[in-house]
């Protein structure tokens, strides 16, 4: 068996194209969805991520801003910027690019972002809505994974799914979304004993622990669909996911590559959340 590649670029483009009529409808009401990114310090990877998000906004005709703060900025200074954006009627989505410098508390500062503008979906209010089964703005990578599953026509209801990873950004929300679609979900972690015992029973496997080679081909059920969320830089400088791509491709029916897989979907889902936030803003104003 040779797995079919799940092309994140193709699926992301389709998702973005579906946003265009919604953006046009907002424009007819005098609203251009606006996204503000806050970048603290000089992290090279963060610079790339923010640049990709700004480019995606430009391609869709969305307003975007980047607010840069120095490496040594205080938490009070950062929160002041967040509060200003919370009250800016032209900005509908606010994201704080992580990681932050060590002296800043990421959980405390992201909690200052208004839930109505929390397009990363990390606020307790938005996460609580997801738990309750009434999602508002959900975490982008989890949304991206679910969009890929839907695009591929993978049956979720009644399926066994394993999510390896328990982060608020990926693992937990992905598990909740799969549960909402009727899957039987097992959440594993990097500490799980005999991980293969769980993954071999799953038709859907999502891996997001930040450790290359966490899941290999012999750990998969033949014909399973594998979604690799990991992005790891190896000693030779190459990028690899959390799944051993070569061995997994020989067992799985479908698999996401790294790069070129889930990462593209995360940015597309961020654009979708920004449009949704603008629509919700219009509904409150009407």
Account of the protein in words:
It is a single chain. The chain is of the alpha/beta class. The protein contains ten helices and eleven strands. The strands form three sheets. It has a six-stranded parallel beta sheet with strand order 1-11-8-7-5-6. Helix 2 (44-60) links the parallel strand 2 (34-40) and strand 3 (63-69). The radius of gyration is 19 Å and the shape is globular. The mean pLDDT is 96.
Describe the SSE topology.
Elements: E1 4-5, H1 8-28, E2 34-40, H2 44-60, E3 63-69, H3 75-86, E4 93-96, H4 106-110, H5 124-131, H6 140-151, E5 160-164, H7 171-180, E6 184-188, H8 195-199, E7 204-207, E8 225-228, E9 232-233, E10 239-240, H9 245-249, E11 254-255, H10 262-285
Parallel strand pairs: 1-11, 2-3, 2-4, 5-6, 5-7, 7-8, 8-11
Antiparallel strand pairs: 9-10
H and E order: EHEHEHEHHHEHEHEEEEHEH
Mean pLDDT, nearest integer? 96
Alpha-carbon Rg, integer: 19 Å
Category from helices, strands and their pairing = alpha/beta
Q: pLDDT under 50 segments (min length 5)?
A: none
Question: Count of DSSP E strands?
Answer: 11
- N-to-C terminal Cα separation, in Å? 55 Å
Helix content: 40-55%
Question: How does the major sheet shape up?
Answer: 6 strands, parallel
- The shape is globular
Order of strands in the sheet with most strands: 1-11-8-7-5-6
What share of residues are in beta strands?
Answer: 15-25%
Number of helices: 10
């Amino acid at each position: 068996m040779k797995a079919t590649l799940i092309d994140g670029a193709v699926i992301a483009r389709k998702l973005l194209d579906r946003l265009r009529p919604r953006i046009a409808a907002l424009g007819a009401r005098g609203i251009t969805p606006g996204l503000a990114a806050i970048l603290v310090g000089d992290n090279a990877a963060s610079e790339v991520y923010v640049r990709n998000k700004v480019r995606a906004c430009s391609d869709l005709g969305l307003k975007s801003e980047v607010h840069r703060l120095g490496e040594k900025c205080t938490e009070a200074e950062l929160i002041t910027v967040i509060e200003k954006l919370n009250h800016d009627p032209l900005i509908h989505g606010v994201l704080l690019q992580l990681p932050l410098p060590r002296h800043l508390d990421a959980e405390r500062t992201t909690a200052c972002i208004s839930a109505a503008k929390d397009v990363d979906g990390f606020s307790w209010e938005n996460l609580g809505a997801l738990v309750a089964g009434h999602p508002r703005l959900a975490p982008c990578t989890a949304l991206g994974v679910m969009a890929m599953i839907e695009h591929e026509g993978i049956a979720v209801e009644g399926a066994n799914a394993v999510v390896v990873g328990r982060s608020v950004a990926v693992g937990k929300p992905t598990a909740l979304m799969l549960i909402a679609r009727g899957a039987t979900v097992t959440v594993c972690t990097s500490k799980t004993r005999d991980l293969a015992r769980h993954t071999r029973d799953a038709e859907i496997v999502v891996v997001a622990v930040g450790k290359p080679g966490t899941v290999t081909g012999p750990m998969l059920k033949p014909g399973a669909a594998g979604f690799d969320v990991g992005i790891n830089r190896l000693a030779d400088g190459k990028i690899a996911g959390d799944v051993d791509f070569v061995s997994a491709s020989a067992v799985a029916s479908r698999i996401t590559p790294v790069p070129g897989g889930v990462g593209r979907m995360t940015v597309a889902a961020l654009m979708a959340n920004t449009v949704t936030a603008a629509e919700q803003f219009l509904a409150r104003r009407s």
